[in-house]
Amino acid sequence: MKKPKISVLMTIYNHQNYLKNSIISILNQNYSNWELIAIDNGSTDKSRKVLKSFKDKRIKKIFLKKNIGRTNCLNYGLDFCKGEFVAIQDSDDVALRGRLKKQFKYFDKFKNLSLVSSNCQIIDERNKIKKKKYMNYKNINYRDLIFKNIIAHSTVMYRKNLISKIGKYPKKFLYAQDYAFYLKVFKNYKIYISNENLLKARIHSNSEGFRLSKTKTIVNEQIRLLIWSLKNLDPSTKEKIILISKYFFFKLKKFFRFLYSIKN
Questions:
Q1: What pLDDT does 8 receive?
Q2: How far is residue 201's CA from residue 190's CA, in Å, rounded to a whole number?
């Protein structure tokens, strides 16, 4: 019996220097029954040319005329995913050879699992390892997800039928759409995070600069997610105290940013 297909969903925007290695890392997987949904989200560099250079029929190439935002692009791409499972990979990250096979085995062994993730190494522009482990997931308390995003998006694989149960990535979140999605999953379904490194996640100057330029919006989204967790995830008294404390921390952060903007 043929194993279920995995749809790897990759959204691309101006990653001409990293895209080739990212796609090659999927081509080199030791699990063969996959498709790659590669969507160029209106890139202005040579990413489109890099994507067009690949001839493997398992790669479905989609080219958008203009950038529609990360959340919209992810949701658009989900409509093209035909596999029983969806694996996310950012176009500047690199999957280790056994990633798809090992993550599929978790689903095959544990039928109640809806989403699996893993640890990853952090690399820079030159592929140098900056951090050997994203986090220590040994003896992890999954309730920590209520307070902060502990999952790297490029390490995620989930059952496609989740989308019909909880919906796609929340459209109102421009930057924390992955975290908002995990919380929706966590509310009613089982998540597992492996401590094994299955990916190299890239941190580079462009990504860091982008996050700094969007700090105000990111803080607003974090506040909204804290409120959502308070209302939907049945927090204990201790968890409520932590959530409320973080809420006021982000409110203060927002206030001081406002004061700084006035002075400057």
A1: 98
A2: 24
Query: What are the domain boundaries of the chain?
Result: 6-202, 215-263
Tally DSSP H helices, then E strands, for the chain: 9, 9
* Residues of the chain under the 70 pLDDT cut: 1-3, 205-214, 255-264
Q: 179 exposed, middle or buried (CB, 10 Å; 0-12, 13-18, 19+)? A: buried
Looking at residue 213, what is its pLDDT? Answer: 47
Question: Beta-carbon neighbour count of residue 93 at 10 Å?
Answer: 23
Query: CB–CB of 6/36 below 8 Å?
Result: no
Percent share of the chain, pLDDT over 70:
91
**Tokens linked to 253:** 């952060």
The predicted pLDDT at position 210 comes to 46
Q: Beta strands of the chain (E only): which ranges?
A: 6-12, 34-41, 59-64, 85-88, 94-95, 113-123, 129-131, 157-159, 190-202
Q: Please report the pLDDT score of residue 1 as a whole number.
A: 53
**Total Cβ atoms within 10 A of residue 8:** 25
CA distance 235 to 243: 9
What radius of gyration do the chain's Cα atoms show?
19
Find out whether 26 and 51 touch, Cβ atoms under 8 Å: no
Please state the length of the chain: 264
Q: Does domain 6-202 have CATH number 3.90.550.10?
A: yes
Token pair of 220, please?
Answer: 């607003």
Q: How many CB atoms lie within 10 A of CB 240?
A: 12
pLDDT at residue number 216: 85
Residue 211: other Cβ atoms inside 10 A: 11
pTM of the model: 0.92
Which H or E element spans position 234?
none
